[in-house]
Amino acid sequence: MTLPPRVRDAAVIPVAAVEVLAMRPLIGTTEIVLYGVAVLALFFRRRRPVPVLVAALPVTFAGHLLIAPMIALFQVARSLESRRAVYGWALAFFVTALGPWWPSATGAWPPPDGFLFGVVSSALMCAGPTAAGQLSRARRELAEHIVQLSAAHQREAEFIAERAVVAERARMAREMHDVVSYQVSLMTVQAGALERTAQEPAARETASLIRGMGVTAMEELRGLVRVLRSVPGNAAAGPRLGALPALIAGSGLDVSTDAGLAAACSRQWPTGVEEAAYRTVQEALTNARKHAPGARVSVSVGGDEWRGLPALRVEIRNGRADRVPAGRALPSGGHGLTGLRERAEQLGGELLAEPTADGFRVRAVFPCASPVTVEL
User: Which residues have CB under 8 Å from 60's CB, separation 6+?
Assistant: First the structure.
């Protein structure tokens, strides 16, 4: 476990005190003062490693108190990028550490064996901190490179996953276009032919409605295919709230709306909220057409409040079917309301779908993250 820098700095003081006590018979007051300056300078060694080493060199010349100078040399070797500079300061430390073995004031040289011992001991005291400092620097740089390499690998994995998603979405777009567009186009063409050849006005009106719904379905299918083919994050926005009147008018149902619809459509709501409201009304009208043909439907859209936030409220009610659907029953995906509920929860709201005494009700509330002026 690596100790925090402040703990290591505080540990220098007792270690230096023990060294001074051990060398007390051999050192004088001047050397103790110089050593004290070197120990205090160590607290700034991470920001100013070279000046701290310079401050520690004078006490190194005496040859007795060496822990603080060796720590300063270690920090220089760990901090400097230039190896030449590191080796230059290591050489300066080596020459200074030879102080006790230089000729005395009388010019007398120490015995050869004594001088050799001084060279070896000074070299060891110089080589140890230098090598340890360079090793520590190499380990730190290696750790940084590993972090960078890991981040690069993560970005590459995310890019590969994004490419896979884009490819899968493009494949789904092709499948959807090939499978659905043919059937919808055929339905639209046949409805158009029936509209031109039918003798009864009711039949022509029904064929015209079917053809319009087919055209709308094709337009939405093309928009969905564009979304699936687009890059994630750059997809075009879905239908907005202003498209609700056209959706209701083209539904072929007996739909009544309240006064709040026009007011709500004239306001700016967040894109996700408007798209969720549109899809909720669209799904509810589709369900009413499939499960309650001939029933009256009411659509209510307006401002509301949800847990202290302004919100958009959508409520669709339909009565009971006044007739049994003729012919083959319309297919049901079984996931429409589930998807709407998940969409509402993602926006922070809720969706309720429940039977009532006279039919069925779908109610959704979509809060707005940003303040929006609404009429309550």
Answer: 66, 69, 93, 96, 97, 99
| Coil vs helix vs strand at 367 | strand
Q: How far apart are the first and last CA of the chain?
A: 61
Residue whose entry in the numeric block shows the structure tokens 């400092």: 133
Rounded mean pLDDT, 325-331? 49
Question: CA-to-CA distance for 84 and 75, rounded, in angstroms?
Answer: 15
Predicted confidence band at 317 (pLDDT cuts at 50, 70, 90)? very high
349-374 pLDDT, tens digit per residue, is 999 999 998 889 999 999 986 444 44
Beta strands per DSSP E along the chain: 254-257, 296-306, 309-319, 350-356, 359-367
Please name the residues in contact with 76: beta carbons below 8 A apart, sequence gap of 6 or more.
Answer: 49, 50, 53, 86, 89, 133
Percent pLDDT > 70 in the chain is 81
pTM exceeds cut of 0.70: no
Q: Measured in whole angstroms, how far is the alpha carbon of residue 227 from the centre of its chain?
A: 23
Q: If you write DSSP's letter for every residue of 129-143 in order, what string do you get?
A: HHHHHHHHHHHHHHH
Return the SS3 of 28: coil
Q: Which of 214, 171, 174, 170 is nearest to 190 (CA)?
A: 214
Q: Which of 81, 88, 87, 119 is nearest to 102 (CA)?
A: 119
